[in-house]
Inverse folding.
């Protein structure tokens, strides 16, 4: 089992289920899943990223890596840029969503970042819906269902 690297209020049973699925999924599918998770969280938090070149570039870099068109160096640089804008953002919800995005592109570097991205997504839910175990469970179920969809293709 992977360890949670950040403090969150979570549904341990559902996180363990996601972790088991993560362990049998290849890195390219995890990168696809993490990108869809990042988009899901941007939309969940109501963040308009349509003109945010750093965020848009991170999704492009991930797609290009999945197709063997960019190096891990390019992936890491993109992730660093996303985390830089996260550090510069005062709104904690937006900052945490940007962490999801940064971790999602980092999956192309190391698959373990997909679980970190999923935990940051739960942190977003914690911030927006404090003490709402139902909201956390719904987010974990979304994550599990989305990964299952991608694995089955």
């Amino acid at each position: 089992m992977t360890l949670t690297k950040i403090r969150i209020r979570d549904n341990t049973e559902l996180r363990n289920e996601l972790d088991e699925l993560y362990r049998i999924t290849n890195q390219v599918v995890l990168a696809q899943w993490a990108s869809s998770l990042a988009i899901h969280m941007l939309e969940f938090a109501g963040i308009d990223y349509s003109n945010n070149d750093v965020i848009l570039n991170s999704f492009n870099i991930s797609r290009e890596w999945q197709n063997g068109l960019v190096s891990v160096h390019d992936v890491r640089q993109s992730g660093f840029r996303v985390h830089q804008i996260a550090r510069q953002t005062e709104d904690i919800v937006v900052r945490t969503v940007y962490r999801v995005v940064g971790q999602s592109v980092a999956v192309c570097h190391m698959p373990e970042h997909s679980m970190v991205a999923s935990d940051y997504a739960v942190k977003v839910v914690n911030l927006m819906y404090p003490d709402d175990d139902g909201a956390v469970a719904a987010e974990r179920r979304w994550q599990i269902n989305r990964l299952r969809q991608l694995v089955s293709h």
